[in-house]
Design goal:
It is a single chain. The protein is α/β, with parallel strands linked by helices and 273 residues long. Helices cover 40% and strands 17% of the residues. It has helices at 16-24, 43-48, 62-71, 91-99, 118-134, 147-152, 163-174, 189-194, 196-211, 216-223, 256-264, and strands spanning 3-9, 30-36, 53-57, 77-80, 104-113, 144-146, 176-186. The radius of gyration is 17 Å and the shape is globular.
């Protein structure tokens, strides 16, 4: 089966080459689309240098971009990758084997960070626990599913935050979500920039707000208060950095706020170290 890989980007000229090079080594048939949200660096030029890679441009917003990228492809399987993720050798074959099981609605890889520091092993362990207990992978684990399932679920919500969370919840309600044991290394840049503790607390507040029905536009403002929307960093504007990676606690089983804590308690990642 042909796999359509969709990579949403916004000013990713530094990270994108390694991501595309890793995909070029995957067994075919495979098509790759970079869905750019208006980069002001050389992201689109970098993507165009790779044979077979196509670039589509849409309004900024990770959900919006991934929907646009999916529409521009024809593969029966859709694989959504972040630009700072590196697909291991044979990853595409793993996607095909997983989706060959009709009972599987959505799959993802094991969360891994591209740093050898011990504190990030704790983050990874927390994510593994969340996936084992709640079948709740996030976007930086390389979500993949059949095109038919993606369309039946309505694609990604085109909101500023939580586009991956909503898709996985819908897939979990529709069938089985599989978290593969094979790693998909991703960058620790966001944790390095903001700090593990600060990022964890912020993300739990965002998750709590989401479960309590706070508008996404309000939650986005909470990420960097006082900053005009036009000046927000790519990690905030349009949903970038919206993955709430990290560790889950045990299921508490009562109240929406408690459910949020059990689903999402996180020690997020992103960036290099």
């Amino acid at each position: 089966m042909r796999i359509a890989v969709v990579i949403p980007t916004l000013n990713e000229e530094g990270r994108l080459p390694a991501c595309l090079a890793a995909l070029a080594r995957q067994p075919g048939p495979i098509e790759v689309v970079v869905a750019d949200g208006g980069s002001t660096d050389r992201t689109r030029e970098v993507a165009a240098r790779f044979p077979g890679v196509r670039v589509v441009v849409s309004e900024a917003g990770r959900g919006r971009q991934m929907n646009a990228g999916a529409r521009a492809t024809t593969g029966a399987y859709l694989w959504f990758l972040h630009a700072d993720c590196l697909a291991a050798a044979g990853a595409a074959s793993m996607v095909r084997r997983c989706l060959a099981d009709e009972a599987t609605t959505l799959g993802a890889f094991r969360f891994a960070l591209d740093s050898r520091r011990w504190r990030y092993r704790i983050v990874e362990a927390g994510v593994r626990l969340r996936c084992r207990l709640f079948s709740l992978p996030y976007g930086d684990q390389g979500l993949f599913l059949r095109r038919a399932a993606f369309e039946a679920l309505g694609g990604y919500r085109e909101e500023p935050l939580f586009e991956d969370l909503h898709l996985v919840r819908a897939a979990r309600a529709a069938g089985r979500v599989v978290c593969l044991p094979h790693p998909l290394p991703t960058s620790v840049r966001r944790c390095r920039r903001d700090g593990v503790v600060r990022t964890t607390v912020r993300n739990q507040l965002l998750l709590l707000g989401e479960r309590l029905g706070v508008a996404p536009a309000v939650l986005v403002r909470l990420r960097e208060p006082g900053m005009p929307a036009a000046e927000m960093s790519p990690a905030v504007h349009g949903g970038y950095g919206g993955d709430l990676d990290g560790q889950s606690t045990t299921e508490m089983g009562y109240g929406r706020a408690q459910r949020t804590a059990s689903e999402g308690l996180s020690l997020p990642s992103s960036g290099s170290d």
